[in-house]
Amino acid sequence: MAAGAGWPAVCEKFRAARTLSAVESLKDPETEPYRSKYSARALLQEVKQLLSAAEEGGEAVLAVRRAVLEYELGVNHTDTEELSAGEEHLQRCTQLLEPHRLSPDCVSLYIQAQNNLGILWSQRDEIETAQTYLESAEALYNQYMKEDGNPPLDPSEHFMAEEEKLTDQERSKRFEKAYTHTLYYLAQVYQHLDMIEKAAQYCHTTLKRQLEYCGYYPVEWARNAATLSQYYLSKECFMEARHCLAAASVIFSQAGQVPSAEDADETEPDQQDLPERKGEIARCWIKYCLNLLQSARKLLEDNIGELDPDRQLELKAQRKKEEDEKEKGRKKAVLFGTSDICDSVLAMEEKVSSVYPLDFQEAREVFLVGQNYVQEAKEFFQVDGYVTDHIEIVQDHSALFKVLAFFEEDYERRCKMHKRRIDMLEPIYADLNPQYYLLICRQLQCELADTYYEMMDLKVAIGNRLEKLDSHTVKKINSLAQFAIKYYELFLDSLRNPDKVFPEKLEEDVLRPAMVAKFHIARLYGKLITSDSKKQLENMQTSLEYYTFLVDYCEKYPDAVPAIETELELSKEMVNLLPGSMERLRAKVSSFV
Amino acid sequence: HLFSVEGDAIKVFVRVRPPSDRTVLTDGDHGLCLSVLSSNTIRLHSKPEPKIFTFDYVANMETTQESVFSSVAKNIVESCMNGYNGTIFAYGQTGSGKTFTMMDVGCHLGIRNVYVNYCVFQAGSGKSFLCKCSFIEIYNEQIFDLLDSASAGLFLREHIKKGVFVDGAVEQVLSSAAEAYQVLTTGWRNRRVASTSMNRESSRSHAVFTITVESMEKNNEVVNIRSSLLNLVDLAGSERQKDTHTEGLRLKEAGNINRSLSCLGQVITALVDVGNGKQRHICYRDSKLTFLLRDSLGGNAKTCIIANVHPGSKCFGETLSTLNFAQRAKLIKNKVRKLLCLY
């Protein structure tokens, strides 16, 4: 070794280079963004020159130290946008380590080198190459843990004096962190490659490991877990979704607690957003309840959208048989947290089911949980300040009632549930300025119209059971129909241009809603009850006009047909039938005269 | 029924600035990477085949501010007086003439035109008008008020009648076009001051100048108030966006701070977006700019983008990407939220 540069001096230089690279470089001016990185690089080159086999340890130790330097130089070059040079250094690092990659001295460094090669290739837009490096890092970790498993050396330790070396605990922490990064990068790789399921699995594992190794901010973690639950919802994996949400709620409650001394300098970034984040998690829970109910409904409904009792019995029998078995196997794979957290998460889970509710009682329990989260979400997302969010929550609340009504067998009570929806939606709609919230206004118009329509249908069904329609029921049916017509018309009016002209050709995204509105108005005029024949003829005429609109429109724009096939077929039938019925009615009226 | 944000197609205009070095003009097309073929087509001299782009309007180097205004902004400014919201975006790389176009065409002529109309309407019967403006800057997802240099970190909120607004932003009541322009230049100066004092570059921030026109009409004791917004948006230089958004497959690295695997959330969000047709809630909000503009852009609003390009051959890459962006924008039917995400 060169005179005057003993081992301690070498270590000192190495340490200085690391400090320059990690700490000083953050303060570099914009005009010279890589100043400290370049200084660090020079130091690392010096250290490389000073290394020699003459030091203790012999060839093997020297090879590892060289590999550490190649690694540092590789990272340094990629940081300063010199990818090719960076790649060379990193490749040299892995070559030097190849024979010893499973030894506790090298495994961590090898994995980190592979991680960096993965990043490097992704910067060259060659994600498949990145994938191979990262997957081999993953495999190496697994093999090492299986064959050895002792806390391996951290790369920085190769340039440390004996007395400075890390504890096993610290070693293990750093090693696991490097591997967590591998998984985090793999999650991104799979997402970029559209391997969505795998990406989700790696996101899940990353979250899980963050918990295990206490490497997380509670609020950020909870938010990520809650978001992941929404992925599981889209796949109808309710058990996993519930687990993510329960964990999100449990971890969220840790937010703002005094951090341990070790982490005191790292406070969570967005503490002031706590109420908002809480509201967001509540909204994820609402979607959970809503989806669970809606999926159950889909399983249970017959071809006219009513509850199918045979199907219900069948599913109940089936559920008894498979209860738990399958779930337990899946559950092991995704469980978050260690004992303490795990217990709280499980307790949280018990508050709501993750299997499909099959009758009103079960559905109601899910509904009530959802409704509680509606209240919680509204605490932050108040209409004053958060109009869109607030209305979305109210819409969810209405949707919860709607799906609960499906499970309710008593028509009168079902009607009352729909009335609740009207009561929550109507006042909001009345206040909302369509100039800024046109889209939401239209959603509300359609939803209000559909709700009145449904209530009218229910009243008709109730009336049909009576021997004779009483005047009260008639009045009720007519008034509900009028309200439904009113909101459909408001929606159709919103499509008019400023000169109040209805568009010649409908935009794709409003085509189906507009056509359904026309179709429903036609039916509603058909349902209006009146003893006045002249009035009845008028209603039939209006009805006919709306049916004709549909038929004519589809003749003119055949590409609209697939969007409203069923409605079109019925409309054609009515256009054929109605004139005849009207003729008969006219004949009847004139014969009386 | 779930509708997406819909409305008129976005009008897309391209403006070619003159090269700063006038001499290249003397030897024909030499040194230039594009030529303007007509008032709506442009040819990019790409290899091996030149590429033709078609837009709603192309302004060549000789086009004056006045004529850019009358073909591009006039319609939007005027419909603002009729109760429509309108937004004009300037897009392009730093140095492509965005600010020149925006300050003069969008703002100066725009304001003047608002005022010409304003006076005409004012003179008419029954209605009275109020004209206000605000000027904010979005930098690094934070909102700064350019009319109040002391303020920092303002928040976006929504009002059930008035839509989205910047809470606490100064709203200046205007009584003349000259005054409006004065306010604008003051704000612009603040933007420059801020960019030196806080090390934030104007090319990295979006500036939004908003004119609100309120009309009040008395109709048999019923008072009808209407208000419409005209947003003039100077977007951050497109070359900066490239660093963060159009980088393709790059992996986001783990942060320097020990625990932060900060983009994990975005990865998960991307997974959830695929599950369409299902009810879901995403915990990550739109960007500030998208959120601020989303309601004035949806439905009954008029929007245009002026893509500015520099014709020098040195700028070929940037010009190509600007033209590609503008082409995509043309195809998008006012799904501005999507568009801005894409941006």
Radius of gyration of chain A: 34 Å
Q: If you average the pLDDT of chain A, what whole number results? A: 91
Terminal residue distance of chain B? 28 Å
| Helix content estimate of chain B | 25-40%
* Biggest sheet descriptor of chain B: 9 strands, mixed
Give the H and E element order of chain B.
Answer: EEEEEHEHEEEEEHEEHHHEHH
Strand content of chain B is 25-35%
Q: How many DSSP E strands of chain B?
A: 14
Question: What is the makeup of the main sheet of chain A?
Answer: none
The string of secondary-structure elements of chain A, in order, is HHHHHHHHHHHHHHHHHHHHHH
Please report the first level of CATH classification, the CATH class of the largest domain in chain A: Mainly Alpha
| Quaternary assembly | heterodimer
Spatial gap, N to C terminus of chain A:
125 Å
Class inferred from helices and paired strands of chain A: mainly alpha
Roughly what percent helix of chain A?
over 70%
Which structural category do the helix and sheet elements of chain B fall into?
Answer: alpha/beta
Could you provide a short overview of the structure?
Chain A: This is KIF-binding protein. The complex is a heterodimer of chains A (593) and B (343). Chain A is mainly α and 593 residues long.
Describe the fold and architecture.
The complex is a heterodimer of chains A (593) and B (343). Chain A is built from 22 helices and no strands. Chain A has helices spanning 7-22, 35-50, 58-79, 83-97, 107-123, 127-147, 168-192, 196-212, 218-234, 238-252, 274-300, 309-322, 325-334, 339-349, 360-380, 387-407, 411-431, 434-465, 471-494, 508-527, 533-556, 565-592. In chain A, helix 5 runs antiparallel to helix 6 (127-147), helix 11 (274-300) runs antiparallel to helix 15 (360-380) and helix 17 (411-431) packs antiparallel against helix 18 (434-465). Chain A is an all-alpha fold and 593 residues long. Chain A has four domains: 6-239, Tetratricopeptide repeat domain (Serine Threonine Protein Phosphatase 5, Tetratricopeptide repeat, Alpha Horseshoe); 240-255 and 274-302 and 341-401, no CATH class; 410-502; 522-592, no CATH class. The model of chain A has no long low-confidence stretch (mean pLDDT 91). Chain B has helices at residues 65-81, 98-123, 177-197, 238-244, 264-274, 288-297, 316-331, 336-342; strands at 11-16, 34-36, 41-44, 51-54, 57-59, 85-92, 127-139, 142-145, 155-159, 163-167, 172-173, 206-219, 222-234, 301-309. Chain B is of the alpha/beta class. The relative contact order of chain B is 0.22. In chain B, strands 1, 5, 6, 7, 8, 11, 12, 13 and 14 form a nine-stranded mixed sheet that branches. Chain B has a three-stranded antiparallel sheet with strand order 2-3-4, with helices on one face. Chain B has a two-stranded antiparallel sheet with strand order 9-10. In chain B, a hairpin with a 6-residue loop joins strand 3 and strand 4. In chain B, helix 1 crosses helix 2, helix 2 packs antiparallel against helix 3 (177-197) and helix 6 (288-297) runs antiparallel to helix 8. Mean pLDDT of chain B is 76; it is low at 1-7 and 334-343. Chain A: Keywords: Cytoplasm, Cytoskeleton. Chain A: It is found in: Cytoplasm, Cytoskeleton. Chain A: Activator of KIF1B plus-end-directed microtubule motor activity. Required for organization of axonal microtubules, and axonal outgrowth and maintenance during peripheral and central nervous system development. Chain A: It holds the Pfam family KBP_C. Chain A: Belongs to the KIF-binding protein family.
